[in-house]
Design a protein that fits this description.
Elements: H1 5-12, E1 20-26, E2 34-42, E3 45-53, H2 62-82, E4 104-105, E5 111-116, E6 121-122, H3 130-146, H4 165-178, H5 188-195, H6 203-209, E7 216-218, E8 227-230, E9 236-239, E10 246-248, H7 250-261, H8 279-293, H9 299-303, H10 305-326, H11 338-355, H12 357-367
Antiparallel strand pairs: 1-2, 2-3, 3-5, 4-5, 6-8, 7-10, 8-9
Helix pairs in contact: 3-7, 3-8, 4-10, 7-8, 7-10, 8-12, 10-11
Length: 369
């Protein structure tokens, strides 16, 4: 996905920006969309925006995606105003095109959107301070609180079956059967580990069908770097990267954060002795998440938080192994066996979550509203 500077400027000028364009440079560390920081000036006043070319290879339904983003950000803005917050900094704000649309399609068919730029705030890629992980938990918990009354069933599925773990399992078994790279014999232990947990994978969907697990607005990419932390206060400010907003489960958003942030090792660590679930980090995130949700989660949702952490870790490991068996066609790799290393790290983390299950349940109960 690329574009010329002329195409980028064509897109920038299609939106209702203030002043004259002064600069437009690449911004951030995202890998999916192309992102730029646009700076304009008028009568000595600077105006900054985020300009993004959306990845149409990953997101096939741009209209549905942008309908989700507009609906959720507009709803959040109203909620933030009602709570006497700052709606220009506590949620993303779309800038419309000059003809009143939510996004612009350029002369080459690329789709673009624009947000107001949020200044004096930072995204962190790694948990360097437990306070930041606590703030992340509080922000995603508050996200659930503010959107508790949003009609989640009206959202479009931007990536169908994204966290449908049973469907992911069927894809995994198909990859094992076909074994196009002749690798299945080398990973029998990992295959067996996943198969032994097959029955766990359908629990969330079963509880949903029974009416015991509510469908929520789900962010689906709850890593620390999707939270903007205010530079002055150190408080979580705004949740970004809303492309995967879909109907889903709060426990899976929580669980993906734990999978990413409470692991004591890197995602592709080859020394599995370094892999474990940090109970202190699990606790600070859980404390923040439940404080932020302000009692809007059901008792079932709260009790299933450790299950969410286990499932998101298991699903991720299964996806890495599936890709390894298929020839490393989905995830970018930088070395031989990279996806297998990633898989083994996730499965080692699942095993440690299971060992610490009683501790996790006790921590959740400690902060349960």
């Amino acid at each position: 996905m690329n574009n010329s500077r002329e195409t980028m400027l064509e897109a920038a000028q299609a939106f209702l920006i203030k002043g004259t364009i002064e600069s437009c440079e690449p911004y951030g560390s995202g890998h999916i969309n192309l992102t730029y920081r646009l700076v304009c000036r008028e009568k000595g006043q600077e105006y900054a925006y985020i300009l993004q070319q959306m990845n149409q290879e990953v997101f096939k339904d741009i209209k549905g995606l942008m309908s989700n983003v507009k609906g959720v950000t507009s709803f959040l803005r109203r909620q933030i105003i009602e709570n006497h917050g700052d709606p220009d900094r506590e949620t993303l704000n779309l800038v419309p095109t000059r003809d009143g649309q939510d996004y612009y399609t350029d002369s080459l068919g690329h789709c673009w959107r624009m947000y107001l730029f949020i200044s004096q705030a930072t995204c962190y890629n790694l948990v360097e301070d437990p306070k930041d992980f606590y703030q992340s938990g509080k922000a995603f918990g508050r996200f659930q609180c503010l959107l508790a009354d949003y009609p989640a069933d009206e959202l479009h599925e931007t990536i169908p079956d994204f966290h449908n773990t049973p469907a992911r399992y069927e894809t995994f078994e198909k990859a094992v059967r076909e074994d196009v790279m002749g690798r299945a014999g080398q990973v029998a232990e990992e295959i067996q580990f996943i198969r032994e947990r097959k029955e766990d994978m359908g629990l969330a969907l079963r509880l949903k069908e029974e009416g015991r697990l509510p469908v929520r607005v789900s962010h689906n990419d709850t890593k620390l770097n999707n939270i903007m932390i205010d530079d002055a206060t150190g408080q979580a400010l705004c949740i970004i990267d809303l492309d995967t907003i879909m109907p889903g489960f709060s426990i899976f958003d929580y669980g993906d954060s734990i999978r990413f942030g409470a692991n004591t090792a890197q995602e592709d660590e080859t020394d599995l002795s370094k892999v474990s679930l940090s109970l202190p980090l699990f606790e600070v995130y859980t404390k923040g998440f439940l404080e932020g949700s302000q009692g809007r989660l059901t008792r079932t949702e709260t009790e299933l938080l450790p299950y969410g952490a286990k499932m998101m870790t298991l699903e991720c490991g299964m996806r890495f192994l599936t890709d390894y068996l298929q020839g490393d066609v989905y995830f970018h790799t930088s070395r031989e066996g990279h996806n297998l290393d990633r898989c083994r790290t996730q499965l080692a983390l699942v095993a440690d979550i299971e060992r610490k299950w009683a501790d996790l349940a006790a921590i959740v109960q400690k902060y349960q509203c």
